Amino acid sequence: MERFDYIVIGGGSAGSAVAGRLAVDGTRRVCLIEAGGRNDNIFIKTPGFMPFIPEKSNYRYETVPQKGLNGRIGYQPRGRGLGGSSAINAMVYIRGHRWDYDNWAAMGCTGWSYEEVLPYFKRAEANERGSDDYHGAGGPLFVEDQKYANPTSHAFIEAAASLQLRPNPDFNGAAQEGFGLYQVTQHKGERWSAARAYVEPIRGAGNFAIRTETLVERLVIEGGRVTGVKLRRGGTSETVLARRGVILSAGAFNSPQILMLSGIGPAAHLKQHGIEVVLDRPEVGSNLQDHIDYVSGWETSSDVPIGSSLKGTLRMAAAIIEHRRKRTGVMTTPYAEAGGFWKVMPDSPAPDVQWHFVPAVLEDHGREKVKGHGFSLHACVLRPESRGTVRLGSPDPAAAPVIDPNFLDDPRDIACLRAGVRLSHRIVEAPALQAFGPKDRHPVNLDDDAALDDLIRSRADTVYHPVGTCRMGVDEGAVVDPTLKLNGLEGLWVADASVMPKIVGGNTNAPSIMIGERCADFVIAAERA
Known about the structure:
Layout: E1 3-9, H1 13-23, E2 30-33, H2 42-45, E3 61-66, E4 72-76, H3 98-106, H4 114-124, E5 125-127, E6 141-143, H5 151-162, E7 178-181, E8 186-187, E9 190-191, H6 194-198, E10 208-211, E11 215-222, E12 225-233, E13 236-248, H7 251-261, E14 264-265, H8 267-272, E15 279-280, E16 292-300, E17 307-308, H9 310-326, E18 338-342, E19 353-358, E20 372-381, E21 389-391, E22 402-404, H10 411-428, H11 431-434, E23 438-440, H12 449-459, E24 461-462, E25 492-494, H13 509-528
């Protein structure tokens, strides 16, 4: 059996950060285990190829039928392979709001206030604008302004400003509220995933083993301590041992799945699947939160937006050639080029809706092909009250987990989303966007709550930010403590979006990387204790 100091399970946003930070100085033997591949192909690296990312890089999960979505089954894409979801996402760099982290601290998560997590965001970041009170310039994660943005994205910002929705050039600076172009995790016109930031620079180091295409079957637990991991590679099982500990970074769906497969979770549920209960932790797989999102779409008489037409196809063909030669132009688009944050409910402590403007028509997560040109406007509820679960569907570690986000179960969520959708339409009705001749693809009487709610329930779905299923806290139910150590066992930390006690007000890639950075420090501090 191979033996390492640390084993990191999952090479996604947080796992890449943990593994890279633990291995970079060469003093520890670290093994990074990833179920998928290396994710180093042209479709991953080229931002504009995002709609064509290979299926092997995406788990393509689905939910159980959602009663709040008229019984529909939701789609849950998650990154598979090094970089995880940072290898397939829209590259938007957003940290969340100051209030989110201060609220975590108020809930008992000592050390997680905004002022305490800000240095970790800055440490991770290499922002092309340079360093200041809110940004870092020397980290491994490149954050850049977009090299190109469609004219409709600029018009969106102008339209918002005409409604007194102020422009904001930096959503991660002094204030989040406002509208503008997003910064993106790109470098020299290519996607810069967490793996490119933290893992690839030290690939080949003698103390760092990277095991791709390797499935984790379960944790090895002896005498109340996690001592290793049982793996499956190419149909053969093997065990890898950890002298000092294991860091579980498999994401909000797969981290609770691996814990439950290892006998850590709700005892009654584990027994239903014939799994021996090692540690009864009822909240493993509970507290699932996700940003419920509604996409409004407009066809345009203008062919300026990205679209399917002869002119559009020729334009994209030229753009591909430009990108291959110069790494510039339309193929650097993150698609979610512009957006904003605004407060639509009077009792919200911070902006409660986020918008993503896409200069193309999106239907069913881009899986439905649409002819012609147009644009889409996402509106998502930033702090949903609905809570869901992740459970085992089978004791087979290769089987998909059972995902139930329980979308729109709480009436406060649809009230917030309803207000967000109405504001979406007000923005599009402004002259700056009307100049492109938009026609609503899903017209509805916006003044009729019942009609609008029915439309939302028939079309809303995730905007890809599941969190919370291994909740951090100081109460008895918490899965991990504020140092991310699993409550009830030694030698195991959890580091990914699953530890968030409450979802942050924004995209979750940057916060997940921050969590990975923090976990590495917690692990190193435990060595020295």
